[in-house]
Design a protein that fits this description.
Mean pLDDT: 93
Strand order of the largest sheet: 2-1-3-4-5
Number of domains: 2
Number of helices: 10
CATH superfamily of the largest domain: Uncharacterised protein family UPF0261, NN domain
Number of strands: 8
CATH architecture of the largest domain: 3-Layer(aba) Sandwich
CATH topology of the largest domain: Rossmann fold
Order of helices and strands: EHEHHHEHEHEHEHEHEH
Strand content: 15-25%
Radius of gyration: 20 Å
Distance between the termini: 29 Å
Low-confidence stretches: none
CATH class of the largest domain: Alpha Beta
Shape: globular
Length: 259
Protein backbone atom coordinates (compact mmCIF):
# COMPACT_ATOMS: atom_id res chain seq x y z
CA UNK A 1 0.00 0.00 0.00
CA UNK A 2 1.33 3.41 -0.96
CA UNK A 3 1.48 6.43 1.30
CA UNK A 4 -0.55 9.63 1.29
CA UNK A 5 1.79 12.52 0.55
CA UNK A 6 0.35 15.61 2.23
CA UNK A 7 1.84 18.72 0.65
CA UNK A 8 1.68 22.31 1.80
CA UNK A 9 3.49 25.27 3.31
CA UNK A 10 4.27 24.31 6.89
CA UNK A 11 5.44 27.84 7.65
CA UNK A 12 1.86 29.14 7.31
CA UNK A 13 -0.40 26.03 7.27
CA UNK A 14 1.32 23.78 9.81
CA UNK A 15 -1.70 23.13 12.03
CA UNK A 16 -3.96 22.27 9.11
CA UNK A 17 -1.41 19.97 7.47
CA UNK A 18 -0.68 18.13 10.71
CA UNK A 19 -4.40 17.69 11.29
CA UNK A 20 -4.75 16.15 7.83
CA UNK A 21 -1.88 13.80 8.63
CA UNK A 22 -3.53 12.73 11.89
CA UNK A 23 -6.78 11.92 10.06
CA UNK A 24 -4.97 9.91 7.39
CA UNK A 25 -3.12 7.89 10.04
CA UNK A 26 -6.35 7.33 11.97
CA UNK A 27 -7.95 6.03 8.76
CA UNK A 28 -5.28 3.34 8.52
CA UNK A 29 -2.99 4.74 5.82
CA UNK A 30 0.61 5.87 6.06
CA UNK A 31 1.24 9.59 5.67
CA UNK A 32 4.21 11.73 4.66
CA UNK A 33 4.07 15.46 5.32
CA UNK A 34 6.01 17.42 2.69
CA UNK A 35 6.91 21.06 3.30
CA UNK A 36 7.02 23.36 0.26
CA UNK A 37 7.11 26.66 2.15
CA UNK A 38 9.67 29.16 0.97
CA UNK A 39 10.04 31.06 4.26
CA UNK A 40 11.79 28.33 6.25
CA UNK A 41 11.65 24.70 7.34
CA UNK A 42 8.48 23.47 9.03
CA UNK A 43 9.32 21.83 12.34
CA UNK A 44 6.87 18.94 11.92
CA UNK A 45 7.48 18.08 8.27
CA UNK A 46 8.66 14.58 7.39
CA UNK A 47 10.27 15.97 4.23
CA UNK A 48 11.91 19.32 4.86
CA UNK A 49 11.66 22.15 2.38
CA UNK A 50 15.38 22.08 1.63
CA UNK A 51 15.15 18.43 0.63
CA UNK A 52 12.43 19.25 -1.90
CA UNK A 53 14.23 22.37 -3.13
CA UNK A 54 17.33 20.33 -3.98
CA UNK A 55 15.34 18.60 -6.72
CA UNK A 56 15.21 21.83 -8.75
CA UNK A 57 17.42 21.44 -11.85
CA UNK A 58 19.51 24.39 -10.70
CA UNK A 59 19.68 23.29 -7.07
CA UNK A 60 18.14 24.51 -3.83
CA UNK A 61 19.46 28.06 -4.24
CA UNK A 62 17.15 28.56 -7.24
CA UNK A 63 14.21 28.06 -4.88
CA UNK A 64 15.27 29.33 -1.48
CA UNK A 65 17.44 32.20 -2.68
CA UNK A 66 14.55 34.16 -4.23
CA UNK A 67 13.21 37.39 -2.79
CA UNK A 68 10.19 37.54 -5.12
CA UNK A 69 7.38 35.25 -3.91
CA UNK A 70 6.08 34.48 -7.38
CA UNK A 71 9.51 33.43 -8.58
CA UNK A 72 10.03 31.30 -5.48
CA UNK A 73 6.67 29.55 -5.86
CA UNK A 74 7.30 28.84 -9.53
CA UNK A 75 10.73 27.40 -8.75
CA UNK A 76 9.37 25.29 -5.89
CA UNK A 77 6.71 23.87 -8.22
CA UNK A 78 9.46 22.59 -10.52
CA UNK A 79 11.33 21.14 -7.56
CA UNK A 80 8.21 19.45 -6.16
CA UNK A 81 7.43 17.95 -9.57
CA UNK A 82 10.86 16.35 -9.74
CA UNK A 83 10.66 15.24 -6.10
CA UNK A 84 7.30 13.48 -6.47
CA UNK A 85 8.41 11.81 -9.69
CA UNK A 86 11.41 10.41 -7.82
CA UNK A 87 9.30 8.62 -5.21
CA UNK A 88 8.24 5.02 -5.57
CA UNK A 89 5.78 4.83 -2.70
CA UNK A 90 3.12 7.42 -3.59
CA UNK A 91 -0.39 6.11 -3.06
CA UNK A 92 -2.08 9.52 -3.21
CA UNK A 93 -1.22 13.21 -3.02
CA UNK A 94 -3.25 15.59 -0.86
CA UNK A 95 -2.65 19.35 -1.08
CA UNK A 96 -4.03 22.18 1.06
CA UNK A 97 -3.83 25.90 0.41
CA UNK A 98 -4.79 29.14 -1.25
CA UNK A 99 -3.97 30.50 -4.67
CA UNK A 100 -0.19 30.24 -4.45
CA UNK A 101 -0.06 26.76 -2.97
CA UNK A 102 -2.82 25.54 -5.30
CA UNK A 103 -0.80 26.61 -8.34
CA UNK A 104 2.36 25.09 -6.87
CA UNK A 105 0.99 21.71 -5.81
CA UNK A 106 -1.32 21.10 -8.77
CA UNK A 107 1.55 21.70 -11.21
CA UNK A 108 3.36 18.78 -9.61
CA UNK A 109 0.18 16.70 -9.43
CA UNK A 110 -0.39 17.13 -13.16
CA UNK A 111 2.95 15.46 -13.86
CA UNK A 112 1.87 12.27 -12.08
CA UNK A 113 0.33 9.42 -14.09
CA UNK A 114 -3.40 9.05 -14.58
CA UNK A 115 -4.73 6.78 -11.86
CA UNK A 116 -2.64 8.13 -8.98
CA UNK A 117 -5.18 9.82 -6.66
CA UNK A 118 -4.71 13.60 -6.55
CA UNK A 119 -6.84 15.74 -4.23
CA UNK A 120 -6.46 19.50 -3.72
CA UNK A 121 -8.33 21.36 -0.97
CA UNK A 122 -8.31 24.94 -2.20
CA UNK A 123 -9.88 28.34 -1.71
CA UNK A 124 -10.21 28.71 -5.49
CA UNK A 125 -11.90 25.38 -6.22
CA UNK A 126 -15.32 26.95 -6.79
CA UNK A 127 -14.12 29.01 -9.77
CA UNK A 128 -12.52 28.13 -13.09
CA UNK A 129 -10.25 25.23 -12.19
CA UNK A 130 -9.18 24.33 -15.75
CA UNK A 131 -5.68 25.84 -15.33
CA UNK A 132 -5.13 23.70 -12.24
CA UNK A 133 -6.69 20.44 -13.43
CA UNK A 134 -5.93 20.33 -17.16
CA UNK A 135 -6.42 16.88 -18.72
CA UNK A 136 -5.80 15.05 -15.44
CA UNK A 137 -7.79 13.06 -12.89
CA UNK A 138 -7.22 15.75 -10.30
CA UNK A 139 -9.97 16.40 -7.75
CA UNK A 140 -10.53 19.93 -6.46
CA UNK A 141 -12.38 20.40 -3.15
CA UNK A 142 -13.52 23.88 -2.18
CA UNK A 143 -12.29 24.74 1.32
CA UNK A 144 -15.34 26.99 2.02
CA UNK A 145 -13.35 28.97 4.60
CA UNK A 146 -9.76 29.98 4.02
CA UNK A 147 -7.07 27.49 4.97
CA UNK A 148 -6.04 29.77 7.80
CA UNK A 149 -6.45 28.00 11.10
CA UNK A 150 -8.54 25.08 12.32
CA UNK A 151 -12.19 25.65 13.15
CA UNK A 152 -15.49 23.76 13.02
CA UNK A 153 -15.73 24.18 9.24
CA UNK A 154 -12.12 23.62 8.20
CA UNK A 155 -11.83 20.50 10.37
CA UNK A 156 -14.75 18.91 8.55
CA UNK A 157 -13.57 19.85 5.06
CA UNK A 158 -9.93 18.92 5.61
CA UNK A 159 -10.94 15.79 7.53
CA UNK A 160 -13.21 14.66 4.69
CA UNK A 161 -10.41 15.20 2.19
CA UNK A 162 -7.92 13.31 4.34
CA UNK A 163 -10.32 10.38 4.78
CA UNK A 164 -10.97 10.37 1.03
CA UNK A 165 -7.25 10.22 0.26
CA UNK A 166 -6.73 7.43 2.79
CA UNK A 167 -9.68 5.53 1.36
CA UNK A 168 -8.30 5.72 -2.17
CA UNK A 169 -4.93 4.42 -0.99
CA UNK A 170 -6.47 1.58 1.01
CA UNK A 171 -8.79 0.55 -1.82
CA UNK A 172 -6.85 0.63 -5.10
CA UNK A 173 -8.65 -0.36 -8.27
CA UNK A 174 -7.05 -3.57 -9.61
CA UNK A 175 -6.56 -4.32 -13.25
CA UNK A 176 -9.29 -6.48 -14.74
CA UNK A 177 -8.71 -9.68 -16.65
CA UNK A 178 -11.17 -8.30 -19.19
CA UNK A 179 -9.01 -5.24 -19.91
CA UNK A 180 -7.97 -5.09 -23.56
CA UNK A 181 -5.17 -3.03 -25.16
CA UNK A 182 -6.22 0.61 -25.31
CA UNK A 183 -6.25 2.67 -28.50
CA UNK A 184 -6.77 6.44 -28.40
CA UNK A 185 -8.65 8.19 -31.21
CA UNK A 186 -9.46 11.85 -31.76
CA UNK A 187 -12.81 12.78 -33.27
CA UNK A 188 -14.79 15.79 -34.47
CA UNK A 189 -18.04 15.88 -36.41
CA UNK A 190 -16.39 15.49 -39.81
CA UNK A 191 -14.39 12.43 -38.70
CA UNK A 192 -17.17 10.64 -36.79
CA UNK A 193 -17.82 8.22 -39.64
CA UNK A 194 -14.15 7.23 -39.81
CA UNK A 195 -13.88 6.74 -36.05
CA UNK A 196 -17.10 4.71 -35.96
CA UNK A 197 -15.80 2.35 -38.64
CA UNK A 198 -12.47 1.87 -36.86
CA UNK A 199 -14.25 1.19 -33.58
CA UNK A 200 -16.32 -1.50 -35.27
CA UNK A 201 -13.23 -3.09 -36.79
CA UNK A 202 -11.08 -3.10 -33.63
CA UNK A 203 -13.70 -3.18 -30.89
CA UNK A 204 -13.54 -6.93 -30.25
CA UNK A 205 -9.80 -6.96 -29.59
CA UNK A 206 -9.12 -3.44 -28.27
CA UNK A 207 -10.69 -0.82 -26.05
CA UNK A 208 -11.18 2.32 -28.13
CA UNK A 209 -11.01 5.58 -26.18
CA UNK A 210 -12.46 8.46 -28.18
CA UNK A 211 -11.44 12.04 -27.43
CA UNK A 212 -13.40 15.03 -28.71
CA UNK A 213 -10.92 17.39 -30.39
CA UNK A 214 -11.79 20.38 -28.21
CA UNK A 215 -8.26 21.31 -27.12
CA UNK A 216 -8.37 19.47 -23.82
CA UNK A 217 -9.41 16.32 -25.69
CA UNK A 218 -6.05 16.02 -27.41
CA UNK A 219 -4.30 16.81 -24.15
CA UNK A 220 -6.24 14.06 -22.38
CA UNK A 221 -5.30 11.49 -25.01
CA UNK A 222 -1.63 12.43 -24.78
CA UNK A 223 -1.76 12.33 -20.97
CA UNK A 224 -3.01 8.75 -21.13
CA UNK A 225 -0.20 7.92 -23.55
CA UNK A 226 2.36 9.53 -21.21
CA UNK A 227 0.87 7.50 -18.34
CA UNK A 228 1.42 4.24 -20.23
CA UNK A 229 -2.32 3.57 -20.50
CA UNK A 230 -2.51 3.48 -24.31
CA UNK A 231 -0.93 0.88 -26.55
CA UNK A 232 -1.58 2.92 -29.67
CA UNK A 233 -3.02 6.13 -31.06
CA UNK A 234 -5.03 6.79 -34.24
CA UNK A 235 -4.88 10.57 -34.32
CA UNK A 236 -7.22 11.23 -37.22
CA UNK A 237 -8.49 14.63 -36.04
CA UNK A 238 -5.85 17.31 -35.67
CA UNK A 239 -8.11 20.36 -35.89
CA UNK A 240 -6.69 21.60 -32.58
CA UNK A 241 -3.43 22.44 -34.35
CA UNK A 242 -4.81 24.92 -36.92
CA UNK A 243 -6.94 26.36 -34.11
CA UNK A 244 -3.69 27.02 -32.24
CA UNK A 245 -1.97 28.49 -35.28
CA UNK A 246 -4.73 30.81 -36.49
CA UNK A 247 -6.68 31.58 -33.32
CA UNK A 248 -9.50 29.04 -33.41
CA UNK A 249 -11.82 28.25 -30.52
CA UNK A 250 -10.46 24.78 -29.62
CA UNK A 251 -6.68 25.21 -29.72
CA UNK A 252 -4.03 22.65 -28.81
CA UNK A 253 -1.09 23.52 -26.59
CA UNK A 254 2.44 23.91 -27.89
CA UNK A 255 3.10 20.32 -26.80
CA UNK A 256 0.57 18.72 -29.16
CA UNK A 257 2.11 15.49 -30.52
CA UNK A 258 4.65 15.58 -27.67
CA UNK A 259 3.58 12.20 -26.33
Amino acid sequence: MGKVYIVGTCDTKGAELNYAKEVVLSAGADAVLVDVGTLGDGADADIKVRVVAQFHPAGAAAVLGQTDRGTAVSAMAKALTAFLNSRGDIGAVLGLGGTGNTALVTEAMRALPIGVPKLMVSTVASGNVAPYVGPNDLTMMYSVVDVAGLNAISRKVIGNAANAAAGMVRNPIPASADDRPGIGMTMFGVTTSCVTQVREMLGETHEIYVFHATGVGGQSMEKLADSGLLQGVIDVTTTEVPDLLVGGVFPATEDRFGA
